[in-house]
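Slack export, channel: ligand-projects

TW: morning all. Re-posting the request from yesterday since it got buried. We need the structure predicted with the small molecule present, not the apo form. The ligand is coenzyme A; the SMILES is in the block with the sequence. No rush, but it would help planning for next week.
GE: picking it up
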Amino acid sequence: MQETFLAPDFEPAAHWETANAGGCRVHVRVADNRDLKDIDALLKRSYPGLMQPAYAPDVLARALPWMMQANPELVTSGSYYVAEKDGAIIGCGGWTCTAPGTGATTEGLVHARHFAVDPICAQTGVGRAIFERCVMDALATGATRIQALSSLNAEPFYERMGLRRFDLIEVPFGSDAGFPVVLMEGPLKVRETRA
Ligand SMILES: CC(C)(COP(=O)(O)OP(=O)(O)OC[C@H]1O[C@@H](n2cnc3c(N)ncnc32)[C@H](O)[C@@H]1OP(=O)(O)O)[C@@H](O)C(=O)NCCC(=O)NCCS
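GE: finished. pasting the full token output, ligand included:
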């Protein structure tokens, strides 16, 4: 299996809408407000278990109630996606031009937002399928780079997506101590896979 990264002017084929994850077909589509409840449920299934190996229990106990809520503005932004298999939502994630927290914008830079995968599908390619859809759509707007405030557990995932660690920072949750995340950034590139 050979993997090649194509230049940003690569013309995507229509079938990128449907991605191959772990040998099974998942459908990645733009989310809308009818998905809010299912996304909320997915976040609550995904975050506690998949984040648990990377954080102390008290840190998670403080941060999870904030992090496990679907953000209606993000979900209905047009650049937030769900991955479906057999009609069930098994993954979600998206991108924005504005930075989470500050709302700052930087020309050419987009931000990966609120990725989650059902634990029973973890590491079968669902996160990649959503990330690649983000890349396709962000490239079409003229953006060239993507940044992520990655949870500690998700750093290997974003590394595989071509991002690199810039910093280890703490984001504030409520008035308590911060939540450690990895600031990562990389080029927006489309992956071509050749057998
Ligand atoms: C991060 C997350 C979205 C990744 O989704 P996923 O569907 O498991 O990722 P994929 O299966 O598409 O993995 C893509 C690549 O990253 C690698 N990868 C993913 N998670 C990994 C992990 N925890 N450790 C090592 N490698 C990992 C995969 O092995 C795969 O490698 P490959 O390119 O060699 O095939 C998922 O683990 C998750 O929902 N985590 C909990 C929520 C969270 O932390 N979200 C991020 C918020 S910033």
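GE: first-pass observations. The mean pLDDT is 88. The longest helix spans residues 36-51.
TW: perfect, thank you
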